[in-house]
Structures are given as C-alpha cells and as structure tokens.
Amino acid sequence: MGLFSKKKKEEVFCCPIKGRVASITETPDPAFAEKMMGDGIVIFPTDGVVYAPCDATVAFVFPTNHALGLKTDSEIELLIHVGIETVKLDGQGFKMLVNEGDSVKKGDKLLEFDLEYIKDNAESIATPFIVTNLNDKQTIKIQKTGDVSASEDIFSIV
C-alpha cells in the first residue's frame, strides 16, 4: 500500500428484523444456504416488521410482497426474503410499505408481515438477508449472531 493510498471504507449494515441471527448456511433452503444467491445472514424473526438496514433505494419489490431488493449509493445490492417458500402465499400475510424507486433511510419501516400466519402456512420463517453482488475481493464479516434487535449492526462488507 502506498504512502497516500486510502483503505476502502468498510460498509456496515444493521439487522432489518428483530430475531435470532445465524450464518446464511443455516437457512433451510439450499439456494440460500449454499450461497447461490449471495452471502449474508439468516434471521429467524421474533417480530413482524422489516426495517431498512441502511440508506438505499428500493430496487425491486416482489409482486407477492414477501421480498424486496435494495441498492446503496455504492452499488451494493441487498435482498431481504421473508420466509422460505413464501412466494406460494401469494401476498397473504404481507403488507409492503414501500415501492420500487423509493429512497429509504436506515431504520425506515419497509414491510410488515404476520409472523404467526407465516409460521402456519410457509415452509419456514427463516429470512435470508444477503448481498447479491459481492465481487471476488469482498467478504461478509458477521458482527453478531444470536438474539439481535432491528437496529444493531449485523454485518459488514470487507
């Protein structure tokens, strides 16, 4: 590293949902657990509200309201996917509070969901929160696992 070169700033993201956080490899879905979609964490929610984990733009909202994508100013693409096989619920139990193209600030409410309905009608409440566009030089550094509140820093990209 040269005398005047700058170290790239580490980006930190907070947990979007209150619950128990674990490695993405603990997701009960191979596409997520094997990091086919990207790397990150899985949250087992104890609350039915999803908050913005950072300042971003809403890149997309699934028509069934079970998942959404965010894009940061630094081009990081994030996916929050509430539950496993929740697309089959056809929007039941979900209330999206944002639209594609909206600018959101860290802590803004994005989505509400009926946790009991998801438990009773979906394969799992496991909620992957992943970075979908990591490059070969970037990795996820998990800050905390176990019980986490929705405002705590949860992982960084290094």
Automatic annotation (TrEMBL):
UniProt cross-references to InterPro entries, sorted A to Z: Dup_hybrid_motif, PTS_EIIA_1_perm, PTS_EIIA_component
Keyword annotations from UniProtKB, A to Z: Kinase, Phosphotransferase system, Sugar transport, Transferase, Transport
Molecular function (Gene Ontology), one example: kinase activity
Primary residence: cytoplasm
BP GO annotations: phosphoenolpyruvate-dependent sugar phosphotransferase system
Family matches, as PANTHER family: PTS SYSTEM GLUCOSE-SPECIFIC EIIA COMPONENT
Record-given protein name: PTS EIIA type-1 domain-containing protein
Lineage: Bacteria, Bacillati, Bacillota, Clostridia, Lachnospirales
